[in-house]
Design a protein that fits this description.
The structure is a single chain. Helix content is 51%, strand content 6%. It is mainly alpha-helical and 158 residues long. Strands 1-3-2 form a 3-stranded antiparallel beta sheet, with helices on one face. Helix 1 crosses helix 4. The longest helix has 37 residues. It is globular, with a radius of gyration of 18 Å.
Length: 158
């Protein structure tokens, strides 16, 4: 509880700001946005759980890995170069090359379209470019295994 006070205050303010009807509307928007985005990306990233979802969906980059050598991590890291938040990758473990995509309830149709178009553009890029992504962030791609096993909890200038 003590470490989450700020999060709890923000959540409380969000609930109070929207009220019962507003929460219903943003919840509906979240489901609508996720289903719209799912319909835009399912032709390039198969969705094992079907054509409908709630507020998020899991897509698989396994075909891209097999055909082009592009992994879910490559896609996620390259999205950062285009200014998009990277989706959760490799979860759930039951979906190979999983990407959990969860658009927020406040995203516009234009932003969702831009995300889908960017994802498509990335799948057409050279695999070597993707393996080294991100290219525009302060920190490039860390060694995920080393970071998990030996976390560095502070940043020092190079």
């Amino acid at each position: 509880f003590f470490g989450n006070v700020g999060v709890l205050v923000r959540a409380y303010c969000y609930i109070r700001t929207h009220g019962p009807e507003g929460l219903r509307q943003v919840s509906e928007n979240a489901v609508l946005n996720a289903n719209y985005l799912l319909s835009r990306v399912k032709h390039m990233l198969p969705v094992p759980q079907g054509d409908r979802c709630m507020h998020e969906f899991v897509a698989s980059a396994s075909n891209l890995k097999k055909e082009k050598g592009i992994t879910a991590m490559d896609l996620a890291k390259r999205l950062l170069d285009y200014g998009f938040h990277a989706p959760t990758v490799y979860f759930p473990l039951t979906v190979p090359e999983a990407m959990m995509i969860e658009p927020t309830e406040t995203e516009s149709k234009e932003t969702l379209d831009a995300f889908a178009e960017t994802l498509f553009r990335i799948t057409e890029e050279a695999a070597d470019l993707l393996h080294e992504a991100p290219h525009t962030t302060v920190i490039s791609r860390p060694d995920e295994v080393q970071a998990a096993r030996q976390p560095v909890m502070k940043w020092t200038a190079g």
